[in-house]
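4.2 Preliminary Data

To establish feasibility before requesting continued support, the project team ran the inverse folding procedure on a target of 328 residues. The structure was first converted into the token representation described in Section 3, and no sequence information of any kind was made available to the design step. The complete token record follows.
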């Protein structure tokens, strides 16, 4: 029986190749990496973790877990208007985690590194008796003093979102056997959106000078809207009928109108939610056309006293059990 590789063998086989294109990573042979920001740019950093049983399912493919880990962090950078440059990675493996699963994980990272143009710069590899646990810190750049923040939105501005909303939450329901649509392709599409989100990396930097406040939708549209409103000191009104929905989501909603709450609060969309003044509408249309990513106005910001509400087609407030995913 072959001996299991030790920590350094795993790093050499799985992760050193992911750092080969980053001179400041020194092929992962040192304790730190070096990064010199581009003149006129500021470094933007973000970190997210994925825990087995909380953020991904035990039977999710290794490649998709790795790609989701990288992409949820790239989504944060995109919503800040930052361009990704590199990342740090911590992996906590169970003793019984198959080596082939680990190799699949590294292959998923390699695939998305090529797609998004960044490299691994360093990290840590440890063992755990508990669930698989992965943490990734993404490093990017944005023009000095111009990074998009949650704060800055003003009452009366429009509220916009990229792409479509609710697919990932419906995909999780498919993965858990709680939803099965008539068209097999619909189920596969939703599952794909849950497992491998699409960070709006190319679009995000173009929102600088357009968006007054911005963040990505991770905990749920309404929950993340609440974060933006809290930081900006405003309220909001979301028109549920204006939500941009994919064909599978439309089919799900047609079969069960109760899914509207899932679409509004389910999370894991990793689309960009932002506010902008009325004079920016033409610029928003040009950004959407250039990127090929739809951008939809879904409501407006209001005075803080009006609170945060989602309304139906008749303007009646929807009673939501909660605004989104809660970590505690």
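Position-by-position output of the design step:
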């Amino acid at each position: 029986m072959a001996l299991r590789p030790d920590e350094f063998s795993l790093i050499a086989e799985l992760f050193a190749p992911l750092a080969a294109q980053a001179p400041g990573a020194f092929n992962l042979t040192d304790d730190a990496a070096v990064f010199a920001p581009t003149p006129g740019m500021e470094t933007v950093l973000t970190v997210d973790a994925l825990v087995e049983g909380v953020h991904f399912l035990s039977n999710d493919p290794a490649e998709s877990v790795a790609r989701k880990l990288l992409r949820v962090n790239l989504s944060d950078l995109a919503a800040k208007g930052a361009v990704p440059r590199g990342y740090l990675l911590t992996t906590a493996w169970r003793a019984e985690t198959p080596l082939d699963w680990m190799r699949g994980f590294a292959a998923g990272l390699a695939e998305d590194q090529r797609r998004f143009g960044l490299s691994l710069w360093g990290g840590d590899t440890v063992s755990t008796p508990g669930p698989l646990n992965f943490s990734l810190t993404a490093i990017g750049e944005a023009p000095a003093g111009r990074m998009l923040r949650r704060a800055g939105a003003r009452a009366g501005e429009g509220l916009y979102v990229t792409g479509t909303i609710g697919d990932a939450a419906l995909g999780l329901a498919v993965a858990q056997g709680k939803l099965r649509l008539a068209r097999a392709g619909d189920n596969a599409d939703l599952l794909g959106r849950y497992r491998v989100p699409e960070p709006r990396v190319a679009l995000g930097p173009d929102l600088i000078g357009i968006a007054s406040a911005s963040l990505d939708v991770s905990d749920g549209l309404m929950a993340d809207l609440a974060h933006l409103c809290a930081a900006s000191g405003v309220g909001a009104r979301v028109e549920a009928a204006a939500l941009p929905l994919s064909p599978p989501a439309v089919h799900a909603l047609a079969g069960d109108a109760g899914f509207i709450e899932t679409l509004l609060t389910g999370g894991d969309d990793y689309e960009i939610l932002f506010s902008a003044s009325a004079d920016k509408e033409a610029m928003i249309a040009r950004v959407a056309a250039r990127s090929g990513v739809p951008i939809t106005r879904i409501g407006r910001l209001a005075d803080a006293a009006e609170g945060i509400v989602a309304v139906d087609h008749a303007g009646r407030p929807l009673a939501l059990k909660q605004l989104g995913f809660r970590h505690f």
